[in-house]
Design a protein that fits this description.
The protein is mainly α. It is about 80% helix and about 0% strand. It is found in: Cell membrane.
Length: about 425
């Protein structure tokens, strides 16, 4: 019955948004209320569940998206993105620019949460797309595939890291196996698959693509790259230094504070305000106008993401994810395949990769121990399943759709299929590694 109800809810979302043209935020609220009623949440707790879902979702991502949008807008308007695009094209040429973006996504995706990497790198994708008249989806999907794979497969991202500790796996071995699987996953789902998407029409948000400036008005190459990549540099440094050196408690606490994505982005924005603003003869009033425009541009995106959080919370509070998982426990399948399947089905029904991964981990743990399944591979199997078929109940789906300004159909044809390919290629990689390790 739970499967049937969730299927109806997903269909209702598609009808409200795609056919009736209801704003996605309102559609999510309506479907969330309907879900709560159909799945048995007491009437006096429906509003609290919806509010908690919106609050939890926006609490974790609103600061990141807002600061990232401000930084991205300034990088675009100052000419830094134009400078970076020109340098990258000189080095790689149009023939290999997607490969360059894919590799960049893998590198920055390791220390960065998906949402942070997305809002930082999308302006660069758009600038290259507009300057060199390349299709935005065709150009950008390899990088986004890289960010998605690192989010689902690799520590120190939340879900794989939590599973490493839960399964008593080895962090280093899991990371090594994860990289081995991640490379073919992003090459096939990002670089190869996007080659079939040249005809998808996309008019990305103009807010992140500035009018082209004369060469003599552009900031320097070093300044442009340093400012745009400062959040990545800071996060990598603050993550690796505590691992490389013995630090006292006070220094560890300081590093922990500074390494929080919201603090990193705030530091980077302050730096950019001077490096691309004040030092480039822009007054504070003009800079604040740029930041204000960035907020206006992402307000609708924040509401949509918050709405998806409401539905996720209702499905979680109602026990729908546990019902689905309990049905699957009786299946007589190889543990790695079963872990992947449980995570994949929860992901499709609930929308959150993190919820899917951690829920599946709790369910598969006894079976994994009893069958002596490799815990490092189980982390990766569940991580791959947790990325399966992102669609209308996933905040990442809406982030991509709204930034790239796509129809639901074209979002499904590009983003959702890419995520599905990642899930299946990840599973194949795990099963192949299981033969040799």
């Amino acid at each position: 019955m739970t499967f049937f109800i969730i299927s109806l809810l997903i269909l209702a979302l598609i009808v409200l948004i795609g056919w009736l043209k209801i704003h996605p935020f309102l559609a999510f609220l309506l479907v969330s209320v309907l879900a709560a009623l159909l799945l048995g949440i007491p009437l006096n707790k429906v509003a609290a569940s919806i509010e908690k879902g919106i609050g939890d979702m926006l609490g974790s991502i609103a600061i990141i998206i807002t600061l990232g949008a401000m930084l991205g807008k300034l990088v675009a308007d100052s000419g830094a993105a134009q400078k970076i695009a020109a340098v990258m094209m000189q080095v790689f040429g149009t023939r290999y620019i997607r490969l360059a973006l894919m590799l960049t996504g893998l590198i920055i995706g390791m220390p960065l949460f998906y949402g942070v990497g997305f809002v930082l790198m999308v302006p660069l994708i758009f600038s290259i797309a507009y300057k060199y008249k390349l299709p935005a989806v065709y150009l950008g999907l390899p990088m986004l595939a890289s960010l998605s794979v690192t989010h689902g497969f690799l520590p120190p991202h939340p879900s794989p890291t939590a599973m490493v500790f839960q399964f008593h796996a080895d962090m280093g071995i899991t990371l090594l196996y994860g990289i081995v699987i991640a490379i073919p996953a992003v090459v096939i789902s990002g670089l190869f698959f996007s080659g079939f998407l040249k005809k998808i029409s996309s008019q990305p948000l103009q807010a992140f693509v500035a009018v082209e400036l004369p060469e003599n008005q552009l900031p320097g190459t070093a300044n442009s790259f340093l400012t745009a990549l400062l959040p990545v540099i800071l996060l990598m440094a603050l993550t690796l230094l505590p691992l490389a050196f013995q630090l006292g408690p006070a220094v560890k606490n300081l590093f922990s504070f500074l390494a929080a994505p919201s603090i990193v982005l705030l530091i980077a924005l302050i730096f950019a305000t001077f490096s691309l603003g004040v030092f480039q003869k822009k007054n504070i009033g003009k800079l604040m106008d740029i930041y204000g425009d960035a907020i206006k541009d992402i307000a609708s995106i924040l509401l949509i993401i918050g709405g998806s959080g409401a539905l996720k919370q209702v499905l979680t509070d109602s026990g729908a994810s546990n019902d689905i998982a309990a049905l699957l426990q009786g299946f007589n399948l190889q543990p790695l395949l079963l872990g992947w399947l449980i995570a994949a089905i929860i992901r499709v029904c609930i929308g959150s990769a993190t919820v899917a991964g951690l829920t599946a981990a709790g369910i598969i743990m006894p079976l994994m121990v009893a069958t002596h399944t490799n815990p490092n591979l189980m982390v990766l199997s569940i991580g791959a399943g947790s990325l399966m078929f992102s669609h209308v109940n996933d905040s990442g789906f809406w982030l991509y759709k709204e930034y790239f300004n796509l129809s639901i159909k074209n979002t499904l044809l590009s983003w959702s299929i890419m995520e599905t390919l990642v899930a299946f290629i990840g599973l194949a990689g795990v099963l192949i590694l299981n033969i040799f390790v």
